[in-house]
């Protein structure tokens, strides 16, 4: 036990909306009896990634005596949630979700069967080519993905700045195919949180390679620096490929 920074939830302000639950990468917050609660001190890193998701201002960071943050305990906790071993909590509307929060962030592994796979039709005139989605998992937002998600094991990881899929017309077939993906904006989001989340993903899984795709604008190189720092902090030697996308759609690999 030591005095350290940790999340504090004011239950009088909390309305049980659950927005903080998917924002907590460690699964330390759950909705219990209609209120957000910190389920265990050792699951909270004290960085406060959940603060900005609370519309009621019910979450703050305080300093108090608490167990040290334990990455191994986080991994075990998240694996239990994935298997459904953790109890199902109920939000204030009476809807049930594993761990509470938004069902849109519930983890899914996507197997695109021919009959169900979404396809885009490209081309002009009499020539059309159907391109099937290459997305293999959900969610994709770096703020939401569980670090110990099973799809990260033995994966080729694609880290994408969120403007890249709009600018690069061959994104699915050239970059996304065969990879697991996380997406974020290095200008608008918390880059330190990105570094920590990526470090956890790299530490907790056997990542075979990392490709980082980013736009040519200067602010977008922040996502490259986040990946490089995460690799250094994780202490792993993993092949890193960089792909810079121009605003007009050209790709430059280095």
Structural classification: alpha/beta
Number of domains: 2
Radius of gyration: 20 Å
Instruction: Give me the CATH architecture of the largest domain, please.
Output: 3-Layer(aba) Sandwich
- Classify the fold: give the CATH topology of the largest domain: Rossmann fold
Largest sheet, if any?
5 strands, mixed
Portion of residues in beta strands equals: 25-35%
Number of separate helices: 6
Biggest sheet strand order reads 12-11-13-14-15
The count of strands amounts to 15
Shape: elongated
Helix proportion: 10-25%
Q: What is the H/E string?
A: EHEEEHEEEEEEEHHEHEHEE
pLDDT under 50 segments (min length 5)? 87-101
InterPro entries: 4Fe4S_Fe-S-bd, Corrinoid_activation_enz
Biased composition (Basic residues): 90-99
Protein name: 4Fe-4S ferredoxin-type domain-containing protein
Region (Disordered): 79-105
List the defining traits of the structure above:
alpha/beta, 254 residues, elongated, 2 domains, Rossmann fold, 4Fe4S_Fe-S-bd, single chain, Corrinoid_activation_enz, Alpha-Beta Plaits, 5-stranded mixed β-sheet, 6 helices
Question: What does the model show?
Answer:
By secondary structure, the protein is an alpha/beta fold. The chain has two domains: 2-104, 2-Layer Sandwich (Alpha-Beta Plaits), CATH 3.30.70.20; 135-253, Rossmann fold (3-Layer(aba) Sandwich). The chain has helices at 20-23, 71-83, 164-167, 171-176, 191-204, 222-234, and strands at residues 2-9, 29-32, 35-38, 59-66, 88-90, 96-98, 108-109, 119-122, 129-132, 137-138, 155-161, 180-184, 207-215, 240-245, 251-253. A five-stranded mixed β-sheet has the order 12-11-13-14-15. The chain has a two-stranded antiparallel ribbon with strand order 1-4. The protein has a two-stranded antiparallel ribbon with strand order 2-3. A hairpin with a 2-residue loop joins strand 2 (29-32) and strand 3 (35-38). The longest helix has 14 residues, at 191-204. It starts with a strand and ends with a strand. Residues 90-99 have a biased composition (Basic residues). Residues 79-89 have a biased composition (Basic and acidic residues).
């Amino acid at each position: 036990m030591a005095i350290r920074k940790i999340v504090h939830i004011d239950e009088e302000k909390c309305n049980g909306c659950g927005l903080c639950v998917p924002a907590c990468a460690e699964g330390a917050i759950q909705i219990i009896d209609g209120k957000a609660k910190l389920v265990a001190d050792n699951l909270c890193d004290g960085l406060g990634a959940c603060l900005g998701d609370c519309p009621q201002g019910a979450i703050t960071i305080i300093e108090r005596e608490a167990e040290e943050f334990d990455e191994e305990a986080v991994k075990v906790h998240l694996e239990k949630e994935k298997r459904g071993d953790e109890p199902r909590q109920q939000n204030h509307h009476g809807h049930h979700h594993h761990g509470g929060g938004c069902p849109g962030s519930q983890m899914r592994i996507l197997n695109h069967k021919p009959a169900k796979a979404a396809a885009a039709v490209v081309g002009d005139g009499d020539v059309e080519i159907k391109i099937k989605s290459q997305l293999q998992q959900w969610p994709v937002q770096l703020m939401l993905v569980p670090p110990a998600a099973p799809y990260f094991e033995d994966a080729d990881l694609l880290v994408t700045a969120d403007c890249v899929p709009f600018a690069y017309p061959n994104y699915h077939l050239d970059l996304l195919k065969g990879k697991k993906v996380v997406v974020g904006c290095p200008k608008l989001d918390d880059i330190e949180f990105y570094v920590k989340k990526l470090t956890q993903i790299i530490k907790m899984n056997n990542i075979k390679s990392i490709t980082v795709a980013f736009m040519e604008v200067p602010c977008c190189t922040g996502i490259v620096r986040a990946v490089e720092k995460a690799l250094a902090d994780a202490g792993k030697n993993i092949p890193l490929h960089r792909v810079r996308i121009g605003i007009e759609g050209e790709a430059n690999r280095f």
